[in-house]
Amino acid sequence: MENFYEIIGNLLAAFAVGLLAYLTPKAKAWFTAHTDAATREDIWKLVQSFARAAEQLYHDQDPAGTQRKQFVQDQLRALGVEVTEAVINMIEGAVWEINTENRKALVQAKEIASGCAE
Taking each helix axis from N to C terminus, what angle separates 66-78 and 37-58, rounded to the nearest 10 degrees? Predict the structure, then answer.
């Protein structure tokens, strides 16, 4: 049964990566056409900051991530940022970075723990 969950998880991860790979160029083209480089960089920094804050605030309460995503969008809107498909893709990218960092930290912690056990 554990293998079944692992397979489903891998399939979902592959689907998410494929979807991002498909949407990212389209969103990037639209976003580039409608904003300048400095604005995009500012929005990216805001998205990263708000995504990390949402992770910190809602991690235990929101396993699906719905509240976290809404939090980031609400914070951006409060600052006057229009939440377009491109901005939503930026949010997903920031979440992916956070998840990758968390997985790396877990692996390092396991390596340290197994090194101490020897």
Answer: 140
Question: Which two tokens mark 99?
Answer: 């998840």
Q: What pTM, to 2 d.p., does this model score? A: 0.64
pLDDT recorded at residue 20: 76
Whether residue 49 contacts residue 95, with contact meaning beta carbons closer than 8 Å, is answered with no
Among the residues of 1-118, which ranges form H helices? 2-34, 37-58, 66-78, 85-117
13 vs 77 pLDDT, higher one: 77
Query: Would you mind telling me the total number of residues written for the chain in this entry?
Result: 118
| Tokens linked to 25 | 């160029």
What's the pLDDT at 118? Answer: 57
For residues 50 and 90, the answer to whether their CB atoms sit within 8 Å is no
Give residues with Cβ within 8 angstroms of 17, minimum separation 6. none
* Residue 92: C-alpha distances to residues 2, 105, 107, 108 (Å): 27, 20, 22, 24
Instruction: Tell me what the mean pLDDT of segment 55-72 comes to.
Output: 90
